[in-house]
């Protein structure tokens, strides 16, 4: 077994380990509201120096971990009856304010913070078109319509009062794959990628979007990856044993 074979096997194991990490994270977040599954990307890498034999023969092909792509397909909608919960029907994202700047999420499980500001379960303010949305102490019957307008009944009033409009943005397909995950349901946009106002998506009050992870598929992938890893390991061990045996026999001949 030459060094090229060892490196090829090792590159395959590294790729499989990376894929297993991605699948494990998907399974861990199968019940996380608004979570989007990830998938691994791999490509062939032809070594510019390594060859299968003489310098004129074929280049050695390795497995290269190219990156991850986000599965941004919409998850199932689950009714909760909570007036502060919203699911997004479409490709849009809510905008939240974090200490590191604006972030984007599909997790519409909101709550009212100590200061009356609408916020995520992690405590980040959910932004409206004019900044954070504040619910006053006497507000009741909170209503969020399809375009994100937040209305309440103020005290004993029988008239609706508006408290703001949830900001909804989206990215084109190419830009969305450049988003970076932060935690389980937040995305950060890289420099140069600016979201656009989304007028096509709609809010569904009293519901949340479940994770789009399909448990059966991910568990099947995990089993397949584990088996492939074990097969590569067994092959490398077998050929390593053959090489050791050949060296021992060569030593006996020379002696």
The ordered H/E elements are HEEEEEEEEEEEEEEHEEEEEH
Strand content: 25-35%
* Count of strand segments: 19
Low-confidence spans: none
Number of helices, where a helix is a run of at least 4 consecutive DSSP H or I residues:
3
| Strand order within the widest beta sheet | 15-16-6-5-14-17
Determine Rg (CA atoms, Å): 26 Å
Distance between the termini: 23 Å
Q: Output the structural class.
A: alpha+beta
Estimate nothing, just give the exact number of structural domains: 2
Q: How helical, in percent, are the residues? A: 25-40%
Mean pLDDT: 86
Shape: elongated
| Biggest sheet layout | 6 strands, antiparallel
Question: What are its keywords?
Answer:
27% helix, 6-stranded antiparallel β-sheet, 2 domains, 3-stranded antiparallel β-sheet, 255 residues, elongated
Verbal overview:
The strands form seven sheets. A six-stranded antiparallel beta sheet has the order 15-16-6-5-14-17, with no helix packed on it. It has a three-stranded antiparallel beta sheet with strand order 11-12-13, with no helix packed on it. It has a two-stranded antiparallel ribbon with strand order 1-2. It is built from three helices and 19 strands. The protein is 27% helix and 35% strand. It folds into two domains: 3-72 and 213-254, no CATH class; 77-209, no CATH class. The two termini are 23 Å apart. It has 255 residues and is an alpha+beta fold. It is elongated, with a radius of gyration of 26 Å.
């Amino acid at each position: 077994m030459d060094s090229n074979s060892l490196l090829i096997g090792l590159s395959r194991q590294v790729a499989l380990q990376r894929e297993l990490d991605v699948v494990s994270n998907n399974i861990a977040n199968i019940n996380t509201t608004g979570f989007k599954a990830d998938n691994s990307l791999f490509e062939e890498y032809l070594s510019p120096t390594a060859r299968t034999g003489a310098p004129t023969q074929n280049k050695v092909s390795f497995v290269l971990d190219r990156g991850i792509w986000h599965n941004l397909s919409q998850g199932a909608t689950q009714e909760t009856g909570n007036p502060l919960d919203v699911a997004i029907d479409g490709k849009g994202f809510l905008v939240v304010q974090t200490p590191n700047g604006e972030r984007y999420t599909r997790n519409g499980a909101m709550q009212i913070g100590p200061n009356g500001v609408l916020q995520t379960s992690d405590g980040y303010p959910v932004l409206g078109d004019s900044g954070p949305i504040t619910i006053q102490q006497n507000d009741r019957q909170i209503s969020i319509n399809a375009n994100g307008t937040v209305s309440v009944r103020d005290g004993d009033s029988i008239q609706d009062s508006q408290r703001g409009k949830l900001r909804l943005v989206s990215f084109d397909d190419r830009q969305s794959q450049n988003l970076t995950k932060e935690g389980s349901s937040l995305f950060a946009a890289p420099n140069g990628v600016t979201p656009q106002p989304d007028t096509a998506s709609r809010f569904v009050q009293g519901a949340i979007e479940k994770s789009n992870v399909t448990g059966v598929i991910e568990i099947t992938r995990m089993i397949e990856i584990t088996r492939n890893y074990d097969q590569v390991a067994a092959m490398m061990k077998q050929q390593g044993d053959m090489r050791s045996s050949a060296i021992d026999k060569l030593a006996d001949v020379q002696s």
